[in-house]
Specification:
The structure holds two protein chains of two kinds. Helix content of chain A is 38%, strand content 28%. Chain A has ten helices and ten strands. In chain A, strand 1 and strand 2 form a beta hairpin. By secondary structure, chain B is mainly alpha-helical. Helices cover 69% and strands 3% of the residues of chain B. In chain B, strands 1-2 form a two-stranded antiparallel sheet. In chain B, strands 3-4 form a two-stranded antiparallel sheet. In chain B, helix 2 runs antiparallel to helix 3, helix 6 packs parallel to helix 12 and helix 12 packs across helix 13. Chain B is globular. Chain B starts with a helix and ends with a helix. The chains are: A alpha/beta, B mainly alpha. Chains A and B meet through helix 2 and helix 3 of A and helix 13 and helix 14 of B.
């Protein structure tokens, strides 16, 4: 059993009076892909934002590699090595692809910049061709690749991916998931993946959690969950 | 297929307009304009002692000809820029249609900035050619440059960092009052009268620091605000500063303002006819215009410093963070950017430039009062930034010339009286004209006069790529 990189204990997050997370316990072991699936409004993105510091947990603790990050400002959390490809991609539309990647490398030493840009362009060759183009003029799939590439520029220890398949053509989804798998296998990158596309996510994940109404209702390895009839009924009908 | 092919050809013809062709075209324009305006405007008959006397108004005629040529030049440049853009998009079609590549069109935008700079440096000398207009031309130049500098300063806050600031004039006021109060009250007390010739240069950094401090004081409470809400709070801040200036009689002099603010000296040499003055030292005849010209170069240098610093900062992490902040604040935080510091530095640096400009304003006017720092000033500066194109340095220059220059030129247009109804003055129409100019700019260039944005980082292999593209032309 590898050591736990990120762990959540009893995390509760509120939007005003509305409770979005009702006590989440979750572990992300180092070097694994962990996925969180659930329907719309289950609280998946809220958990993601609570981890990255964009939302604050009212109760519970989040620790990253032994450091309590529950109340840490978002930019400090990013500097610890947690990098995020946020929901809706949130690339910088008026800046070029290369500038977007440069913003991603804010937290690390500029000497790695050329090397890391080459790494991202090898991973997503289309970004290399578009390097001087404004982010806002890219297609949805390219923007998603850019968001992931930008997150990788920070040389993260933990990569948070929020719905990378959202609104993309199946062939692009496949390409992106292949890259995630390669990142994990070749570089040993720890990935926490929030997805609605349960089929792809579960196939990829070492460890999976299912969230319903702000609570984790089920957990297990990706394969285990994929074979459970209730998961198939709730999340996989009509997919593949 | 006939349609697109024809378009391509037109685009080519226009793109192929070289410098010599352009020059020819302009010469023809000048000739025609001389033929038309020379007799119509250049000659005037007046009835003197029973006979008609011919008067020459060559200045007016020359102005009309110059305007015509300038407009023609703009049309040509605009056309060339457009067809170059078209040409890029139909590069493949062109390559098929025209194996022989026409002479590459000159990239005029590259020459625009050096051209404007040369013009700005030469302006006082150009003005010397028209002695009776000299003072007015240089004064107008100072005014336009002041607004260019303020526009560049506000561009940091609004254009780069995307923080809508409607109270920018407050920092201008802080700079002006810092100089006014220090130079008239505190410096003579603390340091004696001997400091006064140097007061401007000593106060300039102090005024900048004070304004930057006030920028941060405004920045702290508005850290969490954006867009409309930020606009309202900054608007209120601008008004608060002005109202404090009016009401704090014992400190600021209230509505009476501060008068007798020392004029700047030429690094210690006063501009007067005293033996130790500027004129005597350099063996010149003492003229009031010397001080005006010196002021002109002071504001030119200040504005250029503003531009230089801004352009440098854009390429540093802090400047890139400003731009990223404008694009997406949440993404910024998740990338490890400290948005608090980023916003505060944007406010502080923008305010600092306004403080410099304020000091300059005080020393130029010799008198300041809260009246000079009303909301209309903030609105004018913001209009310059928005009309120029958010974040564009050259756009700010263009917009400042249009808005401020237009505004002031109306005072000079006495000849319009001929066509206007009896008893009306062209000056009365200037707000209307400025408003119309704004509407037209927003109609035709909704994102401002200059919308292009230079990336701050390029790929190192860029040269190889462009060489490939050039090679395509031979295929």
């Amino acid at each position: 059993m590898s050591k736990t990189l990120l762990s959540c204990r009893g995390v509760e997050t509120f939007y005003g009076k509305i409770q979005a997370l009702k006590g989440i316990d979750m572990d992300v072991p180092e070097g694994k892909i962990v996925t969180l699936i659930g329907s719309n409004g289950a609280g998946k993105s809220t958990l993601m934002m609570t981890i990255s510091g964009a939302q604050r947990a009212r109760k519970g603790t989040i620790t990253f590699d032994g450091t309590d990050i529950t109340k840490m400002p978002a930019h400090h959390i990013a500097r610890l090595g947690i990098s995020q490809s946020p929901e809706g991609r949130r690339i910088f539309p008026r800046m070029t692809v290369l500038e977007n990647l440069q913003m991603g490398s804010t937290v690390c030493d500029p000497k790695y910049f050329d090397e890391d840009v080459n790494m991202v362009f090898n991973m997503f060759p289309i970004l290399g061709k578009r390097s001087g183009q404004r982010g806002g003029t890219l297609s949805g799939g390219e923007q998603q690749m850019l968001a992931i590439g930008r997150a990788l520029m920070a040389r993260p220890r933990l990569l948070l991916l929020d719905e990378p398949s959202l609104g993309l053509a199946p062939i692009i989804v496949k390409q992106i998931f292949t890259v995630i798998k390669q990142l994990n296998e070749k570089q040993g990158l720890t990935v926490f993946l929030v997805e609605q596309n349960a089929f792809h996510a579960l196939k990829l994940a070492h460890q999976a959690y299912v969230m319903v109404n702000g609570l984790i209702t089920m957990s297990g390895s990706g394969k285990e969950l994929l074979s459970k009839p209730e998961i198939r009924a709730a999340y996989l009908e009509g997919s593949h | 297929m006939a349609g697109p092919a024809k378009d391509t050809k037109v685009a080519q013809e226009r793109a192929a307009l070289t410098a010599t062709e352009m020059l020819k075209d302009l010469l023809v324009t000048a000739f025609l304009a001389t033929a038309i305006f020379g007799p119509i405007i250049g000659l005037k008959t007046t009835s003197g002692s029973g006979t008609l006397v011919l008067d020459y108004r060559l200045g007016y005629a020359a102005a009309f000809i110059a305007i015509t040529v300038a407009v023609r030049l703009l049309i040509l440049l605009y056309g060339a820029g457009r067809s170059a853009a078209q040409g890029r998009s139909t590069a493949a079609a062109q390559a098929i249609a025209a194996p022989t590549r026409a002479a590459a069109p000159i990239d005029w935008t590259k020459f625009l900035a050096p051209l404007l700079l040369t013009l700005a440096i030469a302006l006082p000398f150009i003005a010397m050619l028209a002695p009776q207009m000299e003072r007015r031309i240089v004064d107008l130049g100072i005014l336009v440059l002041t607004y260019v500098m303020l526009g560049w300063g506000l561009n940091v806050v609004v254009g780069l960092a995307g923080l809508l600031d409607l109270g920018y004039v407050a920092f201008y006021a802080v700079g002006a009052y810092a100089y006014g109060l220090l130079a008239t009250r505190y410096f003579p007390q603390w340091l004696g009268e001997g400091i006064l010739p140097w007061a401007f240069f000593v106060t300039l950094p102090i005024a900048g620091i004070l304004a930057a401090l006030w920028g941060m004081i405004l920045g702290f409470p508005v850290l969490r605000l954006r867009g409309d809400y930020l606009a309202i709070v900054t608007l209120a801040f601008g008004e608060i500063i002005r109202i404090v200036l009016i009401n704090w009689l014992s400190f600021t002099g209230g509505p009476n303002g501060i008068s007798g603010i020392p004029r700047p000296s030429f690094f210690g040499l006063p501009f007067d006819d005293s033996p130790g003055g500027f004129a005597a030292t350099f063996g010149l005849e003492s003229k009031p215009i010397q001080r005006i010209v010196f002021l002109y170069y002071v504001i030119l240098v200040l504005a250029l410093i503003t531009n230089y610093v801004t352009m440098k900062l854009r390429r540093l992490p802090i400047g890139r963070a400003w731009e990223a902040l404008r694009e997406d604040e949440i993404a910024c935080r998740s990338l490890g950017i400290n948005t608090t510091n980023t916003k505060l530095t944007a406010f502080a640096i923008g305010a600092m430039f306004a403080g410099f400009a304020g000091s300059f304003f005080a020393t130029r006017q010799g008198f300041i009062s809260p009246e000079s720092f009303n909301f209309l000033e903030s609105a004018t500066i913001l209009a310059i930034v928005v009309l120029g194109g958010l974040g564009s340095q050259i756009g700010v220059v263009a917009a400042a010339v249009v808005i401020v220059g237009f505004f002031e030129v109306f005072r000079e247009m006495d000849f319009l009286k001929a066509i206007l109804p009896e008893g009306t003055d062209p000056v009365q129409f200037r707000m209307l004209a400025v408003g119309l100019a704004m509407v037209l700019i927003m109609r035709w260039k909704p994102r401002g006069l200059v919308t292009s944005r230079d990336p701050t980082v390029y790929l190192k292999e860029k040269k190889a790529v462009s060489a490939d593209l050039v090679g395509e032309g031979h295929g």
